[in-house]
Amino acid sequence: MNKAFISSIHELVLDSPLGARQIAQAVGKPYSTLLREVNPYDAGAKLGAETLLKIMKITGNAAPLKLMADEMGFRLEPIAGLDPKSHEA
Length: 89
Fold this sequence. Notes:
Helices cover about 55% and strands about 0% of the residues. It is mostly helical. The protein has one domain. The mean pLDDT is about 90.
């Protein structure tokens, strides 16, 4: 799961319409640091839970959270009428 999980975060950042540079700025990290932290092949840098939460809120993409829920045997469902981007990142 670990490789699939961090790979999903890597793809989320790289494939986001916002762009990795804008995401890095929004989470308060240098671009190069963020890319290291989400790189599944870089064992020297780790992504923190707070940064992951910010990334998901900024992008509106909860794919990593869904993977976590699946791994734990839970189902992830959005709350009707709630915009995840509307909460503080």
